[in-house]
Fold:
Amino acid sequence: MAETLIRFGIIGCADIARKVSRAITLAPNATLYAVGSRSLDKAQKFAEANGFPPHAKVYGSYEAVLDDPDVDAVYVPLPTSLHLHWAVLAAQKKKHLLLEKPVALNAAEFDKIIQACESNGVQFMDGTMWMHNPRTAKMAEFLSDTQLFGLPRSIHTCFTFNADADFLKNDIRVKPDLDALGALGDEGWYCIRAILFAANYELPKTVIALREPVLNESGVILACGGSLCWEDGKVATFHCSFLTNLTMDITAVGTKGTLHVHDFVIPFQEREASFSAASESSFDDLVTKWDKQPSTHTVKTDIPQEVHMVREFSRLVGAIKFNNGKPEKKWPTITRKTQLVLDAVKASIDRNFEPILIQE
Structure:
C-alpha cells in the first residue's frame, strides 16, 4: 500500500547512487522522493538519468533534502570526509540513515554519528550490500553448523580491482581530503566485514598490517593487507588493492569444513550466487584424488542484493514509523566492529607495522 512506502532522499550524486536509486525503485516498500546536489542542474540531470518519478523533488543543496518534512530516510553516498557532518545533521533532522561505507574516517567519528542516531530515534544501516544477499544467509547456516563446519580456525579474504590511470589520478578514493583511507576504506571494508562475518562477529585481539603497503604520492593507500589474531587461536588475513585483477574471495576453514566464495562483494550473476562447501574432506586410498569433494550451492533471488538491502532498511524504518518500533541495533553494532578493525590496520601501518590491540 502506498501509505507504507518509505520516502527516500538522496544527498549527493556519486556513481554508487545510480545503483542505489535503481534499488529504491525496485524495492516494494520504498520510493524515490527527493535528490539534492550542490547544484540544481546536477541534481536535475541525475534525477532524469536515474528514473526518478515525475513528482520527485529536486534540490540544489543537501540541506534542502534534509529540511523536506516528507523525506523519511536519506541515502548518503558522499565522500567519507563529509560523513560526520551530514550524517549527524540527517539524524538531527529525524531522517533515518543509510550511509555508504566506509562510514567514517575512524571509530570516534562513527560514535558521534551513531550517538546522533540513537538520541533522535532513527535507524542506521551501512551500505554493505552483499550482507543482504540471500546467499549470505545460507553461508551463515553452514558456518554455524558445528557438525559440518566445526569451529572457525582460519579466514582469508581478498578484494582487488585493476584501476585505470584516470581512477588513480582523479577518483575521490585516492584523494586525501575526500577518502583518505583509499583501498583500505573502499575494498578493505568488505574484506574485514567478511572476516568478522565468518568469525560470528567476534573481534580479534590483535591486528597487524602487512608490510609493504602501496601508497600514492599523497600518502593514500592503493594496496595493503593485514593479519588478525584471536585469543582462541583463530587467525585471518586480508588483501585489498586498486592495482591487481578483479578478485573477491572468501576462504573460511573450520575444524570440520571449508567455505569458498569467489564473488562475495558483487556476484557473477545478479539473480543468483553460489558458494562451495566442503565437510570432512579426504583423499582416496592412493591419494590421487579427493574422495569427498566440495559441493556447490547456488541461491537464486528474484531481486538483486542491493534491493534486498533497501527493502530490509525500509522494513526497519517502517516498523518505527508505522508501529512505534525501536531502531534495530544489529547493524550499527556490526558497523562499529568493522570500523574498529579498519582503524587498527591503519594504526599499524602508521606505527611501523606494530601489533594493535582491539579495544571496544
Notes: The domain at 131-305+339-357 is CATH 3.30.360.10 (Dihydrodipicolinate Reductase; domain 2). Residues 330-350 form the longest helix (21 residues). The chain has two domains: 2-128, 131-305+339-357. The chain has a mean pLDDT of 97.
